[in-house]
Amino acid sequence: MKRFDERDTIFARMNYPADSEEYADYYRKNPDKKAIDDMLRSLPNIGEKGTVTFDPINSPIAEAGFKFLADIRNFAEGSVKSTKIEIDPQEMTSKIKKLGKYFGAKLVGITEMQDYHYYSNRGRHLENYGDQIEIRHKYGIVFAVEMDKEMINRAPQVEELLAVTKGYVDGAIIGMWLSYYLRELGYDARNHMDGNYLLIAPLVAQDAGLGEIGRSGILITKEFGPRVRLGVVTTNMPLVADMKEEFGIKDFCTLCGKCADSCPSKAISSDDIKTIDGELRWRIIPEKCHMLWRRIGTDCGVCLSSCPFSQNVSLELINSMQDSNEVKHKILKEHESKHGNRAYINEPLDIIK
Prior knowledge:
Layout: H1 10-13, H2 21-29, H3 34-41, H4 59-72, H5 89-103, E1 107-112, E2 139-146, H6 149-152, H7 158-184, E3 189-192, H8 201-207, E4 212-213, E5 219-220, E6 228-235, H9 249-256, H10 258-262, E7 274-276, E8 279-281, H11 286-296, H12 302-306, H13 315-319, H14 325-339
Antiparallel strand pairs: 1-2, 2-6, 3-6, 4-5, 7-8
């Protein structure tokens, strides 16, 4: 699998001012993206006045969270204590998983970092635009924080955006604490968090056994479906890697398709799975997705609420579905009987009223 350039992500592209050298460089190399990107930048941003869900009291709650993340992102790396504490890899792996869960993560896994986990070049921020990404850590500690189901099931309203923002904030804090701790023990460590990832977190999480990437391009976990946010700490501390686990998500998504059916922007493919860049997956159209975000004023989240696994499918069924279409159909039937095509709560939460 080839490495992906962060400059090509929709989030990076939206950060290039029209009068900047980075803007000129990017669209000289990618002229096919200029027209759509200029149009997207002309729309109100998420949470801003002019979007459908804008509220002068409630919309700034999420913006406050993202400003906090922007303020702390430069603490992702730091100095390492000169005295290294000798550790047992097996015992330390167990300790880190326990600490991660104590700090607030619901799932924690370890994997050996691969070349394809990382972006090839940076692009999210002008100060390091185009910098090649150096791979210096052998292990990745990846953790998932749960997003509140009642909030996600109100997608695409403001509650969904608050749940997502809280997920990123929680993940950033867990990663900071873990990375600071490992550096105190004498081992280099980096926190990969919102606005400062050097890697593609779902790929790391998939290889660490936390879940599988489904039709929507999002990691689907057994416990919470796609209703999680991910953080990663990479380190040179010797650890014990977990095994990748496939439990039948690609086959299930082939039968299901509810995220594609429910997607208001039609950014999620309803076609059969294909080999793209050497990997079997579905193609997502990020420009369509982002256009909807800017018009609605939240990051939508309808695909999250429409996934049956977001609504707490029993682990017994999940663990028996890989080789059984009967079980897959049973999961779909139970979801449809309870929620129809997707779970939706129209009544606003008390904190939003």
